[in-house]
Design a protein that fits this description.
This protein is mainly α and 337 residues long. The chain is built from 10 helices and 4 strands.
């Protein structure tokens, strides 16, 4: 049998019942559709709120805007093309579009959190100097989107839809044949390089940087900067929540992408597990909306609660207004001579 048959998933009735297979498949599609609706409407509301109130004057809102755009692209492009690819298996362009947008957002979101962590860390450690301004944050974010779009072009070139193989004489009749969006077998020599590069650049490096910076803040907490860090404690909690969300949703997707493109033996379980973990990856934007709602008095607000410089801290108590004493008119009598 042709070696490329290892890259096609073939399910027969004896291995997986058709009813259970259809039920599980429809549940995955339903989860994707619901995620798409929540991501489009939720992030459109966030983007509209930032634009309407002109909130890009704060560095935090610049980074939130970048993450919201990435989640909006997932809901409006990546998820619909993924669903259409599962049903319309005659084109490779849906596969390429789905992979490119998902890899693009998988690059933008972690590195946006990296930039956000670096900016807040520098504000804590260097309170008297304005090293990272809002304009520089906008420039870095724009540069990140350009870098992410250029870096992930390889996914458009290498990923393809595996063709359906004709039936082979002597083998049992196949009940259903699925197409899968995997790396093209014509570029076998490039598979390991790009998969390892994807693992290091898009996963290990950003999480290592964020973890290192947070450990620096923990170490500085036991020094003279303790009160300074307590002032920024709320935004540190926001960073931890966003980082933990990305870690939980990206790790399964990263692992299954690596496994399904390196293992030569495919199975029904691996095919459905790949689609299920892809759906879990798309739910990252929904959890981001929950995080925005929890930190609503900090996210998308004009007041910068965590950008107080040393020596410029406003008093925590209200200023006391002293009563104004009016001078009493003198009752001295003037002697008129």
């Amino acid at each position: 049998m042709n070696s490329s048959s290892n890259w096609s998933f073939l399910a027969n009735r004896s291995a997986t019942p058709a009813s259970e297979e259809e039920s599980f498949f429809n549940a995955i599609v339903f989860l994707d559709a619901m995620s798409s609706v929540f991501l489009v409407f939720g992030n459109f509301f966030i983007l509209s709120l930032i634009r309407k109130k002109r909130l890009l004057g704060r560095s935090t809102n610049v980074f939130i805007f970048s993450i919201a755009v990435a989640d909006f692209l997932n809901g409006s492009i990546a998820i619909p093309t993924h669903i259409m690819f599962l049903y319309q298996r005659e084109t490779i362009y849906l596969c390429k579009c789905f992979r490119f947008v998902s890899f693009l957002t998988k690059t933008v979101v972690p590195y946006t959190i990296v930039f956000m962590t670096v900016e807040k860390t520098m504000r804590i450690l260097c309170p008297t100097r304005e090293i990272v301004t809002v304009a520089r944050c906008m420039f870095c974010t724009s540069l990140l989107w350009f870098f992410s779009s250029s870096f992930n072009i390889w996914s458009v070139v290498l990923f393809t839809a595996v063709p359906v193989l004709p039936p082979v004489a002597g083998e049992p009749e196949l009940e259903r044949t699925y197409k899968r969006c995997v790396l093209n077998q014509r570029f076998m020599a490039l598979h390991q390089f790009f998969l390892l590069m994807d693992l290091f650049v898009l996963f290990l490096i950003p999480f290592t940087v964020v973890t290192s910076l947070l450990l620096v803040l923990v170490f500085k907490y036991f020094t003279i900067l303790r009160e300074r860090i307590l002032t920024y404690f709320f935004v540190v909690k926001l960073l931890l929540a966003l980082s933990f969300n990305v870690l939980i949703t990206h790790t399964p997707y990263q692992v299954i992408t690596f496994l399904e493109n390196t293992s030569n033996v495919q199975s029904a379980e691996l095919f459905f597990l790949s689609n299920l973990l892809t759906s879990v990856f798309f739910t990252r934007g929904i959890w981001n909306l929950v995080i925005y709602g929890y930190f609503k008095h900090y996210v998308c607000q004009k007041q910068n609660l965590a950008s107080i410089r040393a020596g410029n801290c406003p008093p925590k108590t209200e200023t006391l207004r002293l009563p104004i004493h009016q001078s009493r008119p003198s009752h001295t009598r003037q002697n008129i001579i």
